[in-house]
Amino acid sequence: MPERGCVVWLTGLPGSGKTSIARATARELRNMGLRVEILDGDEVRRWLSPTEGFTREDRERHLRRVAYVAKLLARNGVIVLCSFVSPYKKIRKEIKEIIENESIPFVEVYVKCSLEECIRRDPKGLYRRALKGEIKHMTGLDDPFEEPENPELILDSEHLTAEDNARILLSKLKELEIAG
Questions:
Q1: C-alpha 31: how far from its chain's center?
Q2: Is there a catalytic annotation at residue 86?
Q3: Interatomic CA distance for residues 108 and 96, integer angstroms
Q4: How far apart are CA 126 and CA 34, in angstroms?
Q5: Contact (Cβ atoms closer than 8 angstroms) between residue 112 and residue 155
Q6: Which of 25, 38, 89, 160 is the most buried (most CB within 10 A)?
Q7: 142-178 confidence digits (pLDDT tens)
Q8: Fold of domain 6-175
Q9: Of the candidates 105, 152, 99, 153, which has an alpha carbon nearest to the alpha carbon of residue 5?
Q10: Which of 162, 148, 137, 170 is nearest to 15 (CA)?
């Protein structure tokens, strides 16, 4: 087991498959005897930032908290799979600096899926509600998603299954000597 963990940050549009890929990857890493935690957007928000909304400032404040928790876990030998929309380049850069300032490996993963496909999937009904005007600041519609410029890995969740993408991610983690 590694002395220090790492942070794998999965970013992408709502409904792109980030959580499904994180769960499939976590299963495989645990089967290898590694310590793994998933920090998922909806679940973590409920406990860390229950009063935050979805404005740019609210999202950034929330993601800084998440980065801090991920750093603490990784510092203690946990592979942390973070599944967050994290739509802005500036905050993703800041998150990376928070993690890497502790000499913890940080792997940015862009879970790429077209807006049209995410709207079609709409697992939580968020796009439907946003298109009716019931939700404001919906990423991809009335709030931007700034694609990562140089992620360590791009996963195509529109054409590949979560399990296929988990295998690709595991291969990358092995290449980076994070997972054996």
A1: 21
A2: yes
A3: 8
A4: 34
A5: yes
A6: 25
A7: 899 999 999 999 999 999 999 999 999 999 999 988 8
A8: Rossmann fold (3.40.50)
A9: 105
A10: 162
